[in-house]
Amino acid sequence: MTCISDTEYAVSELFVDDFANQRYCVFDFEATGIIPETEHITQIGAVIVENGRIQESRSFNTLVKSPKPIPAAVEQHTGINNTALEHAPALQEVYDDFLAFTKDCILVTHAGYEFDLPLLSKECRLLDLPMITNKCLDTKALFSFLHPEIQDIIWTDYLIKHYKVNDRDLRRHDALADSILIGRIFLQIMDEFLERDLRNIAFEEKVIVKRFQVVPLA
After folding, report:
1. Which residue range or ranges hold the Exonuclease domain (predicted)?
2. pLDDT tens digits along 66-117
């Protein structure tokens, strides 16, 4: 990822051969806020996608104790409150288990290049943990590759509407539920690649992606 401006970044040199036959780990973080440099992880959710299916029985889900309290607006937004984190494990207590869960997988996120990966990288620096090294795909970048003509910011709700993805059975802003939702979106994106007879993901030229805009929670 290369930052272009406050509103755009570029993704290039991203390649996945025979992508339909790879094993993926779709993951999501909840946090104390939306600025990676200043906030902390409060929940990790992840699920395996393999053979064109979300393997919901193969999931990872844990709360994470934060070194700073969750603001009231974020508690309301995510449903995770400070009381719930009182006896939660610290990140360094669960991180090895998360790495083991992702082993031999290509990672998948939504807005992960902008939020989840920078957030995790910062946490790893603070705690002297090894940063995850798996290749990572972002549904925003994949969609922008397929639809360069669309100039909107690609929010999750945009992709839900575009692909007519069912989210009524999921509790939004829960890391595991959002991982399942991102997995459903990812499967639709993979179908669109295959419909275009694209068997490999190949970002040979820069793919321009609109950054999400920070909206204060009130």
Report:
1. 23-195
2. 999 999 999 998 999 999 999 999 999 999 999 999 999 999 999 999 999 9
Instruction: Please check the confidence at residue 153 and state whether its pLDDT lies above 60.
Output: yes
Residue 215 in any domain: the answer is: no
- Mean pLDDT for the chain overall: 95
The domain that holds 184 is classified in CATH as: 3.30.420.10
Burial of residue 122 (number of CB atoms within 10 Å: 0-12, 13-18, 19+) = middle
Identity of residue 77: H
Total domains in the chain come to 1
What is the Cα–Cα distance from 186 to 191, expressed in whole angstroms?
9
Q: Distance between CA atoms of 92 and 195, rounded to whole angstroms?
A: 42
CA distance linking residue 212 with residue 82, whole number of Å? 27
20 touches 187 (CB < 8 A):
no
Q: What is the pTM of this model?
A: 0.95
Q: What is the mean pLDDT of residues 52-64?
A: 96
